[in-house]
Amino acid sequence: MKKGTEFIGLNFLSFVSKYGLVFALFIMLTILSVTAEYFLTYSNITNILLQSVNIGIMAAGLTVVIIVAEIDLAVAAIQTLAAVVVAMLLVNYGIPIFPAIVLTLFVGIIAGAFSGVFAGWFAIPAFILTLAMNSLARGTALIITDQNSIWGLPEGFAFIGQGYVGPVPFAVIIMVLVFVVVHVLLTRTSLGTYIYAVGGNIEAARANGINVFLVKVLALTISGFCSALAGIVIASRLMAAQPIMGLWDLMDVIAAVVIGGTSLLGGEGRIIGTVIGTLIIVSMRNGLNLLGISPDWQLIGIGVIIVLAILFDYFGRNKAI
């Protein structure tokens, strides 16, 4: 009898491990579709997908960083800086759309690489450097705009955030492409193998000849690139840029990653989990807004979810040991 109970328990845990996220998303969507009158309408579903784009793109980059056992606290600030930079290049300096996008992506790459180099060179935890980068990026955005919003972006730029390819928003296609590229990077390349190895056991990775410094720099650089891309997309969607935009996005991005099963202790995580985590967070916020729940309470809810995800990961690892 005891063995039978243990067998059922193990099978249940295995089921939860494999399909728990999908089940949780299904339950949440069902509840919101019943309680929020307009939740399952076509326009609202499209809105949820569009709201997912910048969170999802940043979460894809952050997944790489967390797997390598670091964290990037500057993702939302770099997104804001990128939105401001691309808007200024287009409006204030009249630079064509494509070069402006390339230059803005380069800003994100430099910001991510800067944090990675300093964290690796001086063996400082990345959260300290990225916390500093968070202030640097937000401060720079405020200074270069003189705390003003930027409007009047060229019409052609709007397609990135507002255009459609058939019935599918182009911004959603960009997000899906980012997810696919990061998934391939993590599962089909040597760099992906090194990322998991460094996050799983840094000393063993060094002993096997892996350049830990370079892996961490590349992980944070990828995160910086994704954050800048998210900034470009949101600037295009709003056709404006503000130096205070995206103030609360960091919590949503972290929540999407940890809910998706990426361990804050490093070495574990999958992009498909981040995809589902993103949909859970954005759908929840959307549904709560439809129900008239205060954003203040939503913040508390997101914080509780992150704590529960961390505890689940901690106790799950201890039980495995």
What does this structure look like?
The protein has 321 residues and is an all-alpha fold. The chain contains 13 helices and 2 strands. The chain has one domain: ABC transporter involved in vitamin B12 uptake, BtuC. About 2% of the residues have low confidence.
> How many DSSP helices?
13
Examine the coordinates and then state which fold CATH places here, giving the name of the CATH topology: ABC transporter involved in vitamin B12 uptake, BtuC
Biggest sheet layout: 2 strands, antiparallel
CATH architecture: Orthogonal Bundle
State the assembly state of the protein chains: single chain
Rg on CA atoms, Å: 20 Å
Q: Which regions contain 5 or more consecutive residues with pLDDT less than 50?
A: 6-10
Please tally the β strands and state the result: 2
Strand order of the largest sheet: 1-2
Proportion in β-strands: under 5%
